[in-house]
Queue: 3 jobs
Job 1
Amino acid sequence: MSGGDAAIATESAVADDFAGDVVRGLSQPVKRIPSKYLYDARGSELFEAICEQPEYYPTRTELAILDDHRHAIAAAVGSRPLVLEYGSGSGIKTRLLLD
């Protein structure tokens, strides 16, 4: 397979994954499309800008809760927790928790 053929095969696999993910997501009782298809680099930048707006309070509220309770959270999970972060954006909340 030449380099061009490999690129076409890879693009085809990505298209098949996308189509499968969309069909599966929209076939569920609660419709969804994986966010990985909605946030490219520019989309992530836009979301971060939205999070900084005065009207968008969830991020500030979450940060305040984590900041207020980080020591209790750390004590509850112990010294070797497994942390999973889905769609962390800038990762600031994860960093606060890990620190």
Note: The helical segments are 3-26, 41-51, 58-77, 92-98.
Job 2
Amino acid sequence: MSFDFIKDKNKKVHFIGIGGISMSGLAAVLLNAGYRVSGSDAKESHILDNLRKLGAEIYIGHNSSNIKDADLVVYTAAIPEENPELSYARENSIHAMDRAEFLGHIMQGHKYNVAVAGTHGKTTATSMISHVALEGEVDPTILVGGELDIINGNFRVGNSEYFITEACEYKASFLKFFPYIGIILNIDADHLDYYRDIEHIEETFREFSHIVPKDGYLIGYAEDERVARILKDAPCNTLSYGFDHGDYTAKNISFDDTGCPNFDVYKGNKKLTSIALRVQGKHNILNALCTVIVGELFKISSEAIASGLHNFKGAHKRFEIKGTKNGVTVIDDYAHHPTEIKASLASAESYPHNKIYCIFQPHTYTRTKTLFEEFTKCFEGTEELILMDIYAAREKDTGEINSTMLGDAIRKTGLPCVNVHSHQEALEYVSAKLKPGDLLLTVGAGDVVLVGEMYLK
């Protein structure tokens, strides 16, 4: 693999925030192609260890000296303008490119690019499509926003014109991509630190539909009214899916005793195949339906599509069963938006259990503030909510919002809820409650997963 924008493999590419799930995948793609790569991140991780094994030069902490011999600097949308490495690059005329633009350049080296967009479910849908593409032997390059066992991580370098990736809408990043197949799973209010409102979000997804070429395909969820409007106006081929409406639908739905769906896929009135998933939740039927459409466009057989979907056991951190101790099952989920939390708890309800104890770590002050009311109503089904402090991520605490405020509002609804202020406090509190047959669900995009891992240890 070679890239026209970096013709000389002796040139060095530096990644600011290289330990991030998407940045690390891009760095690994370059390393596998024989390029020189360095990168910096705030703290150590197993991802950094893997990159070191591939030959990356890794720095812990951000310092201008890290990039003095770099020819190109890649950074994420979350990196602040005052980052010392980014500032140094600009002051010294080192070309700097954001992650989305860089990924767009890589996509231009392939013909059949699949960009999976939507507020929720991108990682799972991308992972399902990846499984089916591998089963169909199309030898794809894959970049996924989670770790997937079948590719032993979050990336795979293929030797074909097929490329599968997530397309994040944060700061309209996905508008820098080059999809042949664009997918819109759903449209919901999120990232309101960037978007004005839901109408602004919908308009940006509409722009995404216009970057799909006329001979390409836009796939969307027919029963999401915002997605349906975009499908109707899209200037390319369109295909839709849903439970009751769309070109592809799911019929004869049933669930096994662990909450995993079985269903038949119909294209119009014609049955295509039967699917037996090994991931929980009704929402995963929709992820599977869009995967079936991609499989058909890739001319993969119905048998291989069904087999690929059946072999998918979930991406890490997406309703991931972490283990069992003292009869208690521990499950971790990346859900950090009220809609995602509802879906996670619905999946937990269908899983064999006595009581569900949920530990939630809100992710970013902006999201907690803008979706405050929705967060007070999305935890139905849990015996008790253990609420951790807000995980700041890229933001600073302005004092406008905190987890105790959210806890007070949730307690007013009548749901048992307690605020805790450390992983250890969360562990000690929930351990005193748990009994054999209970389910411990850790929820959030930060480091709440550590509580479940501490319990299992």
Note: The longest strand covers residues 141-148.
Job 3
Amino acid sequence: MKEKIYLYYTSDLHSHFENWPQIIGYFKDKVKKHSEADDNYWLLDNGDHVDRFHPITEGLMGKSNVNMLNRAGYHFANLGNNEGITLAHEDLYSLYDTARFDIICANLKRHQGEQPKWLHSHKIVSTKQGAKIGIIGLTAPFETFYRMLGWEIEDPYAVLHRELNQIAAEVDIVILLSHLGINDDEEMARRFPELDLIIGGHTHHLFKQGEVFHDTLVTAVGKHGTHLGEVILEWDHTNRELTRSEAYAVSTEYLDKDEDTNQFIEDLSKEASSYLRREIAYLPEPEKIAWFSDTDLMIGLVRQLQKWTDADVGMLNAGVLLDNLPKGKVTYEDVHRICPHPMNPCKVELSGDELLEVIRAGHSRKLTEIRLKGLGFRGEVIGKMVFTGVNIDTFTDSEGEQHVKHVTYQGRPLSSDETYSLATADTFTFGRLLPEIAYAQTKHYYMPELLRDLLMETLKDMGTGS
């Protein structure tokens, strides 16, 4: 006897709700069909459904996302890093209190105190004919960030080994919800032949028809809900083996919208807005922004960052501010609109030579004109690097490229024998945008504060504080 199993999933939505009505419309049609045929089906989310760039998510601190998953009839969800490290400890601890689905993440736990009642390391479900399916969730191990927020994150490989040992004798099929990224997915497929299916995410990769690595089917749907995932498995009860494993990424571009879901999102938007409209300052004059030149607001924000972290030097890219502010009342909704990034303040220690190289790179078109996507940045372009705490002399060549001539700190040139503290955004500690910062030996992250929390203080200083 053979039995079919249908799985539908989302991953890395990042609160791009413009695609959610299409996704739910598709799922509703499939659920209706499978319910009428008495089929086995489950709906899953693989993490980063939450992203605080969106006013709905910010205003309701992620509870709106949980309501959406509840309303759609999801069965399981994994935690992504946007759920895990962009929310304050208590906000994450209570995030899923009203969830009507199971949250599965095996390598995360609370550092002290009672564990969240909603958190599971794995779940085992049965098909209608009795096949046992084990589902394990793992999330990216941003150890420093989780520790600062009061959580412990374990090595995903050691945890997966432990979980597989625990459920191996009980299950026929093993599914991994992996918010780890494509490289880890491939490696886990190699190391753990027990895995039948890996639903991947985090690195926003897209497999339109799934890929097979070391006999494990690996699937992924990119980001922002541009695709949804569909998996079809077939279990042979007689021979106790999978005889069919197929995975597809379905484009949502031309799918019909579910109008009830569309209305639900509009209602959530109004509810969230009511929380965001609290006044935080009154500006006597309008404040302009510019991505490739200095502005009073940007300089004020960098000074605030330098002061708040007690750093020698401050540095931020002008692209973090996305819009002007008019004269008059400023609300938290305005602050979120112009600075939506889930980026944290950070302080690193650099030698004089390293700091000089960062300043030089920060004045180059090669860096400032990058159209960055990800690493916490939710804007369009990096923009000019604005520095405080140092005096910088520059000149512009015949091609319009700016070059650094001299840099002084407290009236003296930067010394290669001295160490300087630089306050910036955590974005620059990731990747290779500024290697001197990314590879700095000493880094201090400030959490759960985001850049917009410092922007609020800046606006209060520039105007009449609320």
Note: Residues 279 and 316 are 25 Å apart (CA to CA).
